[in-house]
Specification:
The complex is a heterodimer. Chain A has 20 helices and 19 strands. Chain A is α/β, with parallel strands linked by helices. In chain A, the strands form seven sheets. In chain A, strands 2-1-3-14-6 form a five-stranded mixed β-sheet. Chain A has two domains: 36-174 and 356-394, D-Maltodextrin-Binding Protein, domain 2 (3-Layer(aba) Sandwich); 179-352 and 491-554, 3-Layer(aba) Sandwich (D-Maltodextrin-Binding Protein, domain 2), CATH 3.40.190.10. By secondary structure, chain B is mostly helical. Chain B has helices at 2-6, 8-15, 17-35, 53-56, 63-70, 73-92, 94-105, 109-120, 127-138, 143-150, 162-190, 194-202, 207-232, 239-245, 251-254, 257-266, 270-298; strands spanning 46-47, 58-59. Chain B has a two-stranded antiparallel ribbon with strand order 1-2. In chain B, helix 5 packs across helix 17 (270-298). The chains are: A alpha/beta, B mainly alpha. The interface between A and B is large, with 43 and 38 residues.
Chain lengths: 559, 306
């Protein structure tokens, strides 16, 4: 390369960089994304005789789902739709979906679990506004139910006073998540009831470690293998007993604060530090970033306590995939019992709940040209909320083919115990087959419908008495503590700060528990957390807390 | 037509039409998959709104870069990446050379082959599997700590202590890559003319002296080429390995540029992700060109990739 060529090359690079630097930023470029919808909703006519095609990216629970399932075809026939479902798991949602959207492949109906994802969709121009009034007009029953059991959901879909989706509700999520204990171990170490307080829990875990609960003569058991892969589960049961949600926004004296900064959190950490120092916790718990060791350690009889285990089906010995069956395979003498939330210092049981406000269905921006499709979906949601037969079909499939109601528990000729309540019929009693056809028995997580007013009817009419009684005994709604805004990422700057703040907090808390960091440096953590953007989050949360009433009034739930 | 045939350049191309047609698929591959996508780099200078497309989005000047370097995490990620890469380069670079030299001295062919297969086998294992295995081996309840305890020591937090974690990272990285890296050296060893060794033997040089004065100098060009090429990847610190092995406690030293970019991409913030990727590419380019320049300068034009 000659000197001339070199100078030329450097000049080209300089020109490119300088040009880039001098290009004026257009601050208004994003404003048009939040411009009022061009749709004149009053003029939209939906003609049911016209077949409408819709691509549908549903909840991430059906990665193995197959198109043209009975449930899909049933809804298609009933509402003259042509649905094109897109099945994803969490990994595909996080990694494949951005590429799909980048390529311009935007689903007509999009599911998102978190408000932050709605915001990202909005920022990239993928979704359209859908005014509250339109939802209220077409889904009065659906909205009534939403407002009763999860009114915070309205915050999840709103941005600067406008609504960008149809929030969903899951009444069952108002119940706190609970734990499970090895009752046989408790008895072996001289404890005859499930621990109810932090002190009792400490005593049980201590004896699990030091009193040889499995009687093999070797000190090879621990009390507990805490989960840290998701902030909503990290030491959550202990924090709750101290009256805090450490990774959530809470209300104190009319102000919104971050639970992790409170003195009670520090006290809880001090207690957990003691437990770790006494060797009660699985020393490898910080490595479990995928959240798998928790269950493996329990099933293998290495620990005697696990959280969360919050459905009766975990205790179903007729299902080979249940927690009980798996544990019995390794520990034949195991006896599992539910551990309801611990009592706080006032003796009240407290446990974290997500609250009934669940997820957000959004409509692709391309539907601004076909608003009748939005109307058709809203009408479908309303119909599912009102029509019991349709509701059951959308939830479990066809009665007599996929499921049936069994009034009484009995033992079948082949020795299999058939439980009371809604049961899957063969071959859908295989979980893979059931999932491929979306004929799940779980609540809240359905591909094309979301829980509705009929959930209540369902609980009374179809839920086994045993399940109802179990819920009432172990996970009462009134024990629940929830984030004051439902989900923290409803605040505007959450995308910028919250993820990193949560990671930072998790790092500090784990280091404090394992003793790499002194608990007395908690105040340093608090100021660092605030400095890294936490103050912005708290300010915005307070602002939103004040605006909340306005939003509730708009949707007709003003108090 | 007559004019064209008389043109000497065109004539030359015509004569080598066969060879040129063979290189076309390769050129097309690089053009389509490596050069055309570079157009996407303009995203780094845009306030990228996906629905508006790359060219429809508004310009943002150097805003993305300002955000990038103004953030808490990116400068730290760059620092971590550099630390890990430099350690990998300085410690790990010589292992394949040593392995190749040792294999070269083995005379028993069957033994040599089996060692070679065993050493390059780990290259074919995914880090998803290897990560899980190493977490188990070095964990608090793993065999290594069991041995430490057996000898009366206190368990070592291999995977949650910053310094230990980096050590494990580098060591397992070498274990996985050395055998594979040795292949190219073995190939260049087989290219050394036997007459050099014969001459040395006649002059009375022993094996060690032959290694020092013939084998190593003959390997230098390969080493320089590989070194220059690996400099280009200095901001790529081994995403697969780190992603599968890191945890909250080592976040401060193990969060690298690639894990950062993945996080931004998943948040649909492609402007920032592209800016980070572009920064990585430019640094790599500067290093490769710089290293080549110095290699040529020092060797007076004999060494270097081009």
């Amino acid at each position: 390369m000659t000197l001339k060529e070199k100078i030329f090359l450097i000049a080209v690079v300089l020109v490119v960089v300088l040009t880039a630097a001098l290009i004026p930023t257009d601050p208004k470029s994003r404003e048009r994304l939040t411009q009022p919808s061009p749709v004149n909703w009053d003029a939209v006519q939906d003609d049911l005789a016209q077949t409408l095609a819709l691509s549908w990216q549903g909840i991430i629970s059906y990665a193995s789902g197959k198109p043209d399932s009975w449930i899909e075809r049933n809804l298609e026939e009933r509402f003259n739709l042509e649905l094109n479902p897109i099945f994803m798991d969490g990994n595909a949602y996080a990694k494949r979906r951005p590429l799909m959207l980048c390529g311009g492949d935007i689903p007509d109906v999009m599911w998102s679990g978190d408000p932050l994802q709605v915001r990202a969709n909005l920022r990239n121009g993928f979704i359209m506004e859908i005014p509250y009034e339109v939802i209220l007009e077409h889904c009065p029953t659906y909205v009534k139910w939403l407002n009763t059991y999860g009114k915070e959901a309205w915050l999840y879909a709103q941005y600067k006073g406008k609504n960008y989706g149809l929030p969903t509700v899951c009444a069952g999520a108002n119940r706190p998540r609970i734990s499970c204990w090895r009752m046989d171990w408790l008895r072996n170490v001289g404890i005859d009831k499930v621990p109810e307080t932090v002190d009792e829990m400490h005593e049980a875990l201590y004896r699990f470690r030091h009193n040889d609960p499995d009687g093999n003569g070797i000190q090879d058991t621990y009390g507990w293998s805490p989960v840290i892969h998701h902030w909503s589960l990290a030491f959550v049961e202990v924090f709750a007993a101290y009256g805090v949600l450490a990774f959530d926004l809470m209300e104190r004296d009319g102000k919104v604060i971050w639970g992790g900064l409170l003195p009670e959190t520090k006290e809880a950490l001090r207690e957990l530090r003691k437990w770790y120092a006494e060797d009660l916790l699985n020393p490898d718990f910080p490595l479990d970033t995928q959240g798998r060791q928790n269950e493996i350690a329990f099933v293998n009889g290495k620990v005697g306590y696990i959280h969360p285990v919050d459905h009766l089906f975990y205790y179903d010995e007729t299902d080979p995939t249940s927690l009980l069956s798996k544990t019995l395979a390794f520990c034949p003498s195991a006896e599992l019992v539910p551990g309801p939330p611990l009592r706080d210092k006032d003796g009240v049981r407290r446990g974290r709940t997500w609250g009934g406000a669940a997820h957000i269905l959004q409509f692709g921006r391309q539907l601004e040209q076909h608003p009748e499709k939005v109307i058709r979906i809203l009408d479908m949601m309303e119909a599912i909320a009102c029509d019991e037969a349709l509701y059951m079909e959308a939830r479990h499939g066809k009665r007599g083919l996929h499921w049936d109601y069994n009034p009484e528990t009995y033992v079948r000729a082949d020795g299999k115990k058939i439980k009371e309540g809604v049961i899957s019929l063969p071959p859908y009693d295989e979980s893979d087959r059931r999932r491929q056809n979306m004929a799940e028995l779980l609540d809240g997580a359905c591909m094309f419908y979301f829980a509705s007013a009929l959930d209540q009817v369902y609980d009374e009419k179809y839920m086994a008495a045993a399940d109802r009684e179990w819920n009432a005994r172990n996970k009462r709604m009134e024990w629940g503590m929830m984030n004051v805004l439902g989900k923290s990422d409803v605040v505007t700057s959450s995308g910028r700060y919250l993820g990193d703040l949560v990671n930072y907090q998790m790092t500090v808390f784990i280091e404090m528990v394992v003793g790499d960091r002194d608990i007395d440096t908690f105040d340093d953590f608090v100021s660092e957390w605030r400095r890294r953007g936490g103050d912005v989050i708290i300010d915005e949360a307070n602002q939103m807390f004040e605006e909340m009433q306005g939003i509730y009034e708009m949707v007709g739930v003003g108090e | 037509m007559t004019d064209a045939t008389r043109n000497p350049v065109f004539d030359k191309y015509r004569r080598h039409l066969g060879l040129i047609s063979m290189v076309v698929p390769v050129l097309a591959f690089f053009l389509i998959f490596h050069y055309v996508p570079m157009v996407g780099l303009v995203i780094a200078f845009k306030d990228y709104v996906m629905s508006d497309g790359v060219f429809g989005s508004a310009w943002a000047g150097l805003d993305n870069f300002a955000r990038l370097f103004g953030s808490e995490d990116f400068p730290r990620a760059v620092g971590n990446t550099l630390t890990i890469s430099i350690l990998r380069l300085s410690v790990g670079f010589f292992f394949p050379v040593i392995l190749a030299l040792m294999l070269n001295e083995v005379r028993q062919m069957g033994y040599k082959r089996s060692i070679q297969t065993l050493t390059y086998l780990p290259h074919f294992f995914s880090w998803v599997i290897l990560g899980g295995i190493f977490l188990m081996i070095f964990g608090g309840a793993g065999p290594v700590n069991a041995a430490v305890k057996l000898f009366g020591g206190k368990p070592i937090t291999f995977l949650t202590n910053d310094a230990w974690f980096i050590t494990i990272l580098i060591a397992t990285g070498i274990w996985q890559g050395a055998g594979w890296g040795a292949i190219i050296y073995l190939a260049s060893l087989s290219g050394i003319s036997p007459s050099l060794y014969e001459a040395a033997t006649i002059d009375g040089a022993n094996r060690w002296q032959q290694t020092l004065h013939i084998t190593l100098p003959c390997l230098v060009p390969t080493m320089i080429t590989l070194f220059i090429l690996s400099l280009g990847g200095i901001l790529t610190a081994g995403f697969d390995q780190i992603y599968n092995m890191y945890n909250f406690q080592v976040y401060d030293v193990a969060d690298i540029v690639d894990t950062y970019v993945l996080r931004r991409m998943m948040a649909l913030d492609l402007g920032l992700a592209t800016a980070a990727g572009m920064f990585k590419g430019v640094v790599g380019l500067v290093l490769v060109v710089g290293a080549n320049f110095f290699a040529k300068k020092i060797s007076k034009g004999e060494q270097g990739v081009w």
